[in-house]
Amino acid sequence: MIEMLTGGSGWIVAAVVLTAVFIVPVLIVWALEDRGSAEADHGPAVTPADSTAGTR
């Protein structure tokens, strides 16, 4: 498969690989920041056990 793709369009494969190398870390950082900001906006997740612990 790789040999067939690189038969005359090796630059396409190189472009795809380089694009993936740059985009994947950006997506990971964006996902982590998005999850962190959601927790900062709404506070840590409260479980039912936590919410009823002080009422007993």
Q: How is the secondary structure organized here?
A:
Blueprint: H1 2-5, H2 10-42, H3 48-53
Textual characterization of the structure:
It is a single chain. With 56 residues, the chain is mainly α. It has a domain at 10-41. The chain has three helices and no strands. The longest helix has 33 residues, at 10-42. The protein is rod-shaped. The model has no long low-confidence stretch (mean pLDDT 73).
Order of helices and strands: HHH
Oligomer: single chain
Proportion of residues in helical segments = over 70%
β-strand number: 0
Distance between the termini: 65 Å
| Coarse structural class | mainly alpha
Proportion of residues in β-strands: under 5%
- Poorly predicted runs are none
Overall mean pLDDT: 73
The largest pleated sheet is described as: none
Shape: rod-shaped
Total helical elements: 3
- Give Rg in angstroms: 23 Å
Region (Disordered): 37-56
Transmembrane segments: 12-32
Keywords: Membrane, Transmembrane, Transmembrane helix
Key attributes of the depicted protein:
56 residues, mainly alpha, 77% helix, 0% strand, transmembrane
Question: How would you summarize this macromolecular structure in one to three sentences?
Answer:
By secondary structure, the chain is an all-alpha fold.
